[in-house]
Design a protein that fits this description.
The complex is a heterodimer of chains A (about 110) and B (about 110).
Chain A (H helix, E strand, L loop, with lengths): L3 E4 L2 E4 L5 E7 L5 E7 L5 E9 L2 E4 L6 E3 L9 E3 L8 E8 L8 E2 L3 E5 L1
Chain B lengths: L3 E4 L2 E5 L4 E7 L7 E6 L6 E6 L5 E4 L2 E6 L4 E6 L8 E8 L6 E3 L3 E6 L1
Parallel strand pairs in B: 2-11
Antiparallel strand pairs in B: 1-3, 3-8, 4-5, 4-9, 6-7, 7-8, 9-10, 9-11
Classes of the chains: A mainly beta (about 110), B mainly beta (about 110).
């Protein structure tokens, strides 16, 4: 998992609650990414950040929010506006966005009860 | 235009055989094509990647073949082993955003 940690590994949430997933990297990478993985589907990009204090929406940003106040941290908040939040969430980082090669964390499995 | 189509969805291969997974894309601006390996409950791990200026790249038992004119690329796993049983994803990226577009994944089972 190469220097990227995600916590918690499993997370349970009641409907209507916001929840924040943690992603930390000690690789000194500039770029960080959040993906969502559903069974039988590939990974879909939620948000990405190429540099501190800047982030961009991915393909499925609705119902999610992020912040990038520190280089090593890129937390993802799943809000109550996300209609179907149960999924496996993966954080990734790369040296810089232009270098493409992304390294993934171990993931957080979120279940809405 | 942004999709990457991967096939087959699942694959069963005998130990020692060759596993072949294919991907196709539409956007000719894509310039980076990685393959990831993912075990259940784990994050994907980069296996091998290629850029359009070469037609083939080999790393150990894993080979990417790239056909720019057909807009297709494939992963070949030679001498497949039970430990290779996992889900494999192809992806494509372009430009300086680093945004990866993933295929739907192929679940490979290698029978002993």
């Amino acid at each position: 998992d190469g220097g990227i940690t995600q916590s918690p590994k499993y997370l349970f949430r009641k409907e209507g609650q916001n929840v924040t997933l943690s992603c930390e990297q000690n690789l000194n990478h500039d770029a960080m990414y959040w993906y969502r993985q559903d069974p039988g589907q590939g990974l879909r990009l939620i948000y990405y950040s190429q540099i501190v204090n800047d982030f961009q929406k991915g393909d499925i940003a609705e119902g999610y929010s992020v912040s990038r106040e520190k280089k090593e941290s890129f937390p993802l908040t799943v809000t109550s506006a996300q209609k179907n939040p149960t999924a496996f969430y993966l954080c990734a980082s790369s040296i810089q966005a232009v270098y493409n090669e992304q390294f993934f964390g171990p993931g957080t499995r979120l279940t809405v009860l | 235009q942004q999709q990457v189509k991967q096939s087959p969805q699942s694959l069963i291969v005998q130990k020692g055989g060759i596993s072949i997974i294919n991907c196709a894309y539409e956007n000719t601006a894509f310039d980076y094509f990685p393959w990831y390996q993912q075990f259940p409950g784990k994050g994907p791990a980069l296996l091998i990647a290629i850029r359009p200026d070469v037609s083939e790249k080999k790393e150990g038992r894993f080979t990417i073949s790239f056909n720019k004119s057909a807009k297709q690329f494939s992963l070949h796993i030679m001498d497949s082993q039970p430990g290779d049983s996992a889900t494999y994803f192809c992806a494509a990226s372009m430009g300086n955003t680093g945004k990866l577009i993933f295929g739907q994944g192929t679940t490979l089972q290698v029978k002993p």
